[in-house]
Write a structure and sequence with these properties.
The protein has about 450 residues and is α+β, with helices and mostly antiparallel strands. The chain has 3 domains: about 35-70 and about 265-390, no CATH class; about 75-105 and about 220-260, no CATH class; about 110-215, Immunoglobulin-like (Sandwich), CATH 2.60.40. It is about 45% helix and about 20% strand. It has 9 helices and 21 strands. The strands form 7 sheets. A 5-stranded antiparallel β-sheet has the order 1-17-3-13-14, with no helix packed on it. It has a 4-stranded antiparallel β-sheet with strand order 9-10-4-12, covered by helices on one side. A 3-stranded antiparallel β-sheet has the order 2-16-15, with no helix packed on it. Strand 15 and strand 16 form a beta hairpin. The longest helix is centred in the C-terminal third of the chain and has 71 residues, at about 390-460.
Length: about 450
């Protein structure tokens, strides 16, 4: 309402209240349009949620297209503290007997005793222009790494310089002694040292040889009776698609590594697809439902109730998911795999039946899901494709309706503002007219009183 207040002193009427009531009647269309706008916004939110759920379903279908989902391998070890393994899809199922004779070791050398330092803790305290060097070569490399030191140098500085030089060794300090260990295991990765610092760092024994505290050696093992050597404790390619990790020597019975089809992984991804499908269907059902009272009256309706797009999506998605595909395999629809639709339209999994199918013929099951996923992804993309999908067009359509309502409300607000100003002017004018009438009435009354008084005085005379 306008800020001008009409007091109604002459008429005794509350013009402000009258104007408010008249304007409230004028605003009824705006209230209805605002409610309709809120409904459209709720529909936009619902479609946005459906788009998100369909996109997630599309992602779950991508897993079902991968051969690795159904050709994965599960690996168990009879003694995981000694030997473990991983297997790729190329690995054959079966059991491998692994005997570890010795583990691969890195070459490790160290100072024969604590390295001498001066009273300030420096190993080196070189004058200007003076240098000391340490040359490191690992294995059969043609060239080693030369590290040059100048000025004041602590043992920690030497360790830091070695580790930053990428020389193929790791340096550390233990009890004041410098320890060097080859970065890679295996007998071919021995450390060879040279340079002016070798003697000062006490890295040689009295016979002039490097002080080795751990010999470099290859791993030695047997797999199903076949002897194998490896420079690393991670043994690859000894068995196709299988990588063995050696952790300890098998003094007793060999370790049994069993490789089988990883059915649980496939089941997990199929469950993820089913759960997401149910999420989409239950959400659409919630948004399109009509709730009834005990007396048969409608108590509430979903945000998308009566929306043809929502109803078509629900029906079409159910059909695409449950329909059979053309294949020579017995696995031509979800029901054959133990995935059926309940009375609410949700999918349910008979896990036992699904696992039996995966165990019996994983390739056929994989082929079924690959084709089913391809078909479903094409269908879903028609809805969620950015800019051109059905849901994008739906959102754009609702957006236009909201903008149209905003324009109508804006025009009505302007018209109501003018109406209010007009009412204020009219009632103000009315109040002024009434005030004039009252003034004239008062003047006439006064004149009548005066006339009556004059007439009375003449009659007495």
């Amino acid at each position: 309402m306008a800020s001008i207040q009409i007091m109604g002193l002459s008429s005794g009427m509350d013009y402000n209240s009258i104007i408010e009531q008249l304007i409230a009647l004028e605003r009824i269309p705006i209230t209805r349009m605002t409610e309709r706008k809120s409904l459209y916004k709720a529909q936009q939110d619902a479609w946005r949620d459906i788009n998100t759920r369909l996109s997630s379903l599309d992602n779950k279908l991508s897993d079902l297209r991968l051969s690795s989902t159904f050709q994965g391998r599960a690996v168990t070890s009879s003694k995981a503290e000694l030997v473990t393994a991983t297997a790729g899809t190329a690995a054959l199922t079966g059991t491998y007997s692994v005997k570890v004779i010795q583990l691969a070791q890195a070459h490790r050398v160290a100072s024969t005793e604590a390295v001498e330092v001066d009273e300030d803790g420096f190993v080196l305290n070189l004058g200007e222009g003076e240098t000391e060097t340490l040359e490191i070569k690992v294995g059969g490399a043609d060239e080693g790494t030369t590290i040059t030191f100048t000025g004041k140098v602590t043992l920690a500085d030497i360790v830091k310089a070695i580790n930053e030089a990428d020389a193929g060794v790791r340096a550390s300090i233990i009890a004041g002694r410098l320890v060097l260990e080859s970065a890679e295991t295996g007998k071919d990765n021995t450390i060879d040292l040279g340079g002016t610092l070798v003697d000062q760092l006490k890295l040689k024994k009295e016979d002039g040889n490097i002080n080795t505290i751990q010999q470099a050696q290859d791993a030695e093992l047997e797999i199903n009776g076949i002897q194998i050597t490896s420079s690393s404790n991670t043994v690859k390619d000894a068995v196709q698609g299988v990588t063995f990790t050696l952790k300890g020597v098998t003094d007793g019975e060999p370790v049994q590594i069993t490789i089988s089809h990883d059915i649980d992984s496939a089941v997990s991804k199929i469950k993820a697809f089913v759960d997401q499908y149910n999420s989409v269907m239950s959400f659409i059902a919630e948004k399109t439902k009509v709730a009834m009272t005990d007396s048969g009256d409608i108590s509430s309706t979903g945000t998308l109730q009566g929306d043809g797009t929502a109803n078509r999506l629900r029906s079409a998605l159910r059909y695409e998911v449950t329909r059979a595909i053309e294949t020579e395999s017995q696995f031509n629809q979800l029901a054959v795999l133990g995935i059926t639709t309940n009375k609410e339209g949700m999918l349910e999994i008979d896990e036992t039946k699904l696992k039996e199918a995966l165990q019996a013929n994983p390739e056929a099951v994989a082929e079924f899901f690959r084709e089913k996923a391809d078909n479903l992804k094409d269908f879903i993309q028609g809805y969620i494709r950015y800019g051109t999908g059905i849901l994008a067009e739906k959102q754009e359509s609702i957006g236009r309706l909201i903008k149209d309502i905003d324009r109508q409300i804006e025009r009505l607000e302007e018209r109501i503002a003018r109406k209010e100003e007009s009412l204020v002017r009219q009632f103000t004018a009315l109040e002024q007219v009434l005030a004039n009438f009252q003034n004239q009435s008062a003047w006439l009354s006064q004149q009548m009183i005066m006339l009556s008084s004059w007439a009375g005085s003449r009659s007495r005379n």
